[in-house]
Structure formats: structure tokens, C-alpha cells
Input
Amino acid sequence: MNESSWSHPESPVRHSYPLAVDQAGFGTALSLVMRTLPYALIYYCQNSMEILKTAAWVVVLDKVVTVVVWAVMLIPTGLLLVVLPTALKPGGMLLGFVIAALFASNIRQAFLKPIFLTMVMTKFHVVVRGQPINTVWDERLSGVSSKFRDLKDKALAPPPLPAH
Output
């Protein structure tokens, strides 16, 4: 292969190599998730009350903070309505509430939801740190669902050897 083919934008090597690295990383991460998922489910069942209490507080906090953000977003919306032409003033109040709701929704999606998700995940990890697997929960979940048993069997199986 000559030097010009390496720099050509349609070169398959140039486009497939990063994709292969990305897929290999994703495959490794997915394998790790699948191997640890049964244990995460058991830990969740063991500590469900503490995690659900945190989740309930997060829901309440989400609603309260969303209303506060909406009220704060009424200020720039009101300033926007002041500069509207007089022909749009009659529907301006309703338009202002809608625009403030859209601003608040965007802030909620971009900032608040990730923070609240992190709070619940942190609670999970703090609660399960250093905690042994409760065999009673393991037996309960295995007895209830054949899919859980299959998932656990896959997790305990040795990982496949990479093909050379």
C-alpha cells in the first residue's frame, strides 16, 4: 500500500480502526456488566429499603427544585416579554409561562437528572461497600426466576478466549 492510500479519506483502514477499538472497548465493558449484574441485583434486594428511601427523597427534591427553577426562569422570560411587539402582548403571559417551562425542562434534563441519578447510585455503592452477598436473597431470586438463574450461570462461566 503506498503512502497516498493512507491519507485518502475513503481509506478503509482509516475509518475501521477507530471503530474496531471502540467496539472492543464496548465489548469488554458489556462483558463486565453482564458478569456483575446478578450480584448487583442481589445487593439491591438486600438493601432495597435504604435505596428506595433515597429514591423517594430524590423524587420529592426533583419536583421542588424543578418548580424553583421554573420560577427563576420566569425572570428572563418576563424580560423577553417586555421587548415583544404590542401585537403579541395579549398572548404574552401564556407564552411566558410556556417559555419558562421549556427553559426549566432543559435545565432539569441537563443538570438536575444527572445529579439525582448520581445521588441514588452513590447511596447504592455506600450501602453495599464491604457487605457480603446474602445467600438467602441469592436463593430467593434463583428460585423465583429462571432468567436470573441463566444470568447467574453466564456470569459464573469463564469468559471466552479471544480469537486469534
Q: What stands out?
A: The CA atoms of residues 74 and 100 lie 5 Å apart. Residues 1-9, 11-17 have pLDDT under 50 and may be disordered. Residues 39-156 form one domain.
